[in-house]
Amino acid sequence: MSDINGAQALIRTLVACGVDTCFANPGTSEMHFVAALDTVPEMRGVLGLFEGVATGAADGYARLAERPAVTLLHLGPGLGNGLANLHNARKARVPMINVVGDHATYHKQYDAQLESDIETVAHNVSPGWVRTSQYTAELGRDAAEAVAAARTPPGQVATLILPADVSWSPGGDVATPVEPPARSTVPADTIDAVAKAVRSGEPVGLLVGGAALRQRGLMAAARIAAAVQARLLCETFPARLERGAGLPAVERLAYLGEFALGQMAGLRHLVLVDAKAPVSFFAYPDKPSYLVPEGCEVHVLATGGDDVAGALEDLAEAIGAAADGAAVQPASRPALPTGELTPDAIAQAVGALLPEGAVVADEANTSGLTAPLHTAGASRHDWLCLTGGAIGQGLPVATGAAVARPDRKVIALQADGSALYTFQALWTQAREALDVVTVLYNNRSYAILNMELNRVGAEPPGPKARSLLDLSDPNIDFVSMARGLGVPATRATTAAELSDQLARALVEPGPALIEAMVPGFG
Amino acid sequence: MSDINGAQALIRTLVACGVDTCFANPGTSEMHFVAALDTVPEMRGVLGLFEGVATGAADGYARLAERPAVTLLHLGPGLGNGLANLHNARKARVPMINVVGDHATYHKQYDAQLESDIETVAHNVSPGWVRTSQYTAELGRDAAEAVAAARTPPGQVATLILPADVSWSPGGDVATPVEPPARSTVPADTIDAVAKAVRSGEPVGLLVGGAALRQRGLMAAARIAAAVQARLLCETFPARLERGAGLPAVERLAYLGEFALGQMAGLRHLVLVDAKAPVSFFAYPDKPSYLVPEGCEVHVLATGGDDVAGALEDLAEAIGAAADGAAVQPASRPALPTGELTPDAIAQAVGALLPEGAVVADEANTSGLTAPLHTAGASRHDWLCLTGGAIGQGLPVATGAAVARPDRKVIALQADGSALYTFQALWTQAREALDVVTVLYNNRSYAILNMELNRVGAEPPGPKARSLLDLSDPNIDFVSMARGLGVPATRATTAAELSDQLARALVEPGPALIEAMVPGFG
Questions:
Q1: Position B391 pLDDT exceeds 80
Q2: Which of A83, A438, B38, B243 is most buried when burial is the number of CB atoms within 10 A of its CB?
């Protein structure tokens, strides 16, 4: 029997598999894992004060690092607290490993206070891979298989439930990494069939998502679009979109179904490239859920597990698209804004100042509508979206992205209501001295719900309904909140103040928050 | 067909069933429920900025109101965010109804961003009653059955999943309330069997919990204890314990198994009264999980669904206990503390100042060990504990208790690390002008984990392990955080300052927070 315990074997196996960052919010049942961290120098431990921070950070990390991090969570309630951002990570199809501590195997029968059914909760976010380790000697192998599952294209959340005695007992065995499957090559007859549709002479749209949204896939997609005058569209909420001057500009499908239908009007062929056929975010009375226009044929070029960029290049070749035919975004930046501080003014300031290689974590919701427009011609950057609709993702994702890429500046565009789900992320940014600048849009409401309340066709809202969508009374002071968590913060009430504060924050190292007082909505 | 929609029928049915308070954190799929609130004046809507606040508040409300509130949550991620405090509510066995909005029935097939498997998550916290409403006409009946399920003794969390179209469609029907079953009378032969053990002359312990912890049950238990010199013990983390001068004093079983074993040492009979046979909170290497001493026989007098107080009175009669035999706590209060600000000094200040009829929400964890001691002889009050071990319960429970009982002062004894899971509760306290005074013990660490790290037998912690249990670097400024959420806050660094600030806060209306700077632990 080896002289290391299960926890040590687990951590060493994770490191051997290329997983060297742990976003943790541990409790007593995870204490041996915590103690074992000091025996494996390669594994970094990053504390979050809430599980929604740890899980969202692991998501942001994976989007930038292109490899998984591991989370450390405390039994069923800890997994529950992480569930919203794990939901977003599942929809983002990022690789991630959750380690969820559990009671010792022999202790579960006693139904102690923290006992609950962890596996069923885990299936909500890890439908593809959930395992409860039963034997210390097999824990290393379980971990290697969890990493391989997480890294199986396009990527997924894998959950390993770790009973305390499996973790603390001696006899741990470091396992050899398990190679995940490679992406599949899209068959030639699929390429040919799509090529035929694309060259039909009828109006064509390319809807690109997932792995198609990096430089290689985007360049190939833009070649195709130029060759056949296809409309080049992007899924509404990409996990990571490379953009900026020198890259093809793609138009994101609108959140509101009416507008998305307008973007696709007249199409006879819609080619899906690692994207789903568009559906509305929510259902509304008397509005369609399925948004593909009538008479438009849907073709699938590639799905998540495929070599998506390769398929786009094959299609470009098949239709004889010019190698240098891709239209790219010219460099251009808006002027620094002056006058009233509006969401559009903030977007202009961000567009004017965005540093080369920046990462934008976008949870601005209604306040962020024009941000993509004003940043389209800025230096190259990455845009990270709220992939699963579970708000409270922006600050944690920004945190994890900054851990993954300390060489890049992260800008979090953050709505007020959403910020309050996982505001504790700022503390981790302060502790780890992460280069994250948060622009907090304070409009003192759940603005999107004011809009949706009208859209769903509910009767005109009375005072009780309005009160449940309102974040004033009392007003929230985000500067005070941020400082309380150790992050320097300022408040901007004019466009000029915002521009000044943003310019300054972008050259200072470490985190900062700017509370932008924007007009209320609704 | 009626002219009200499903949401209106649902809310009117809830009101008819005695449920008139809704703790809400809604999204788009719940907008018709929100709009319908204004059509039913009897239903109050209370906004929480996070689902852990809404669910914890519903728990605290039920503990004080002795009837359920309803929560309003947004799909699977909203339920996930509420899961930790729903876990605590499940362990507290309080009545509660969750309404979880879902996509329209016909929209689910499209796997939109917020689609997930809600029912499996709901089973974690509502094992006894989960239903997805399918028809508007039946929604009222579903609601009435949910309330009856929630109110089935001893109480439970019932979850009603509400598809948006079932909510918005016309044809809603207000249902007649469904009477929940009454508590069962404990059979005479059970009483006789327990009476025989109690009168055996051998050492007896009474372990009381749940419904036995109110005045009537406690008085009967104390009569029995006095008649046969039994040890009177209380479960470790009661949902609601009535105590103070004039009530029997019961000794809570210790959190640490070693101490609990000491409290039960020598017992030959342990009578369980709506309490479980004691087990350790966590498992530890080489320590027992099951804590009943060897050679001690366990007898069950009453369980959750029984007429628990009635069974205790029957037992008291059966053994001929004197009607006035109960020993009660004499009135006594500690002096106001001076000198260093320690957790014990805080306990003394609370004991000295606790108002008549106060409610104490106790999530002080390691900092709160002596608080029960120093408050035992204060005026009558209720003590609410962290029932399920999922931290982040204290501030929400205090919030809900204050909503239920505006005539009483609520004191939240709150550990720093735990506070950060659901700190948003303070905003709801400010908005609703609730009489909650929070004493925040800032020891700048997860102190309990420093203790547990040693207890689990892990190797001496290295710098990485210590860092994951440490809340300094940066230090958190809870005064700033509280003010940011609209709650007046002060900081105390000496026992005299704490006493002064507490005395002042207890006479002011509305919420207040006192950040008590106590020495670090570990």
A1: yes
A2: A83
